[in-house]
Amino acid sequence: MAGTTPGTRGLVLGGGGITGIAWETGLVAGLLDHGVDLTTADVVVGTSAGSVVGTQLRSGTPLAELYAEQATDVLDAPTPPSFGLPVVAGFASSVLRARGDAERLGRNLGSWSVRRARRGKTPPLQERLDLIRDRLPSEEWPEADLRIAVVDATTGALRVLDRTSGVPLLHAVAASCAVPGVYPPVPIDGRPHVDGGARSVANADLARDCERVVVVAPLAKGVGPMQNPYQQLEGHPSVILRPDEASRTAIGTNVLDLSARGASARAGFAQATAVADEVRALWA
Q: GXGXXG: where is this motif (predicted)?
């Protein structure tokens, strides 16, 4: 295909909160258990939760170790952040005022997120950076191609951060995980940045230069002008994996609920059995 590098394979890891990190890790680990190794991807694209998983996979940490941590149930998990009425209303207003324009949506979500952070409606920035740091095996960018999607809160434009961007890996991942209205924007180059999911749940088009693409997307629907992975990879050799019924049940209604982490990881691992042949046919 035009614009692609022959023989290359891309792995796209979408957003989905704490349970998304767990489910993605479980699914990738389950596929490896069936002989399909997605960690050999030439390109890894990570958005939000996917930026954490992508960084972990690129770190060289054994996948079995990553899965074991995610599959462990968390006892006495803290009360998760809530997608309450103010957050839902703010998001809905941003979508309506975007009038179908993706960058306008990014600006709307970005400015709203900045206002909420200034009013103390989100956790302190340093607290978020410390939490993200604990999730990263290393703060050094990997040599292998890792692309992290963030949105400039001022312009609404997508930015793709990698080891050549000059942005510290910690700040890139923290920005990609900065869910608008829930977590504080992260300053990069003097401007606030928010979750890459403000543009797309997976930003799968960032891997279109690969000949074949596998998308692991806890959330696969777009809202308003957000394109979903099916739209972004239309006509491109790809497999898009989303939670099955059992996985959706395990994930539950709040993707930030740490108490659902273990069940989400195990459900992802189990789901791999049903999709392994399809992924193998594309990946091999």
A: 15-20
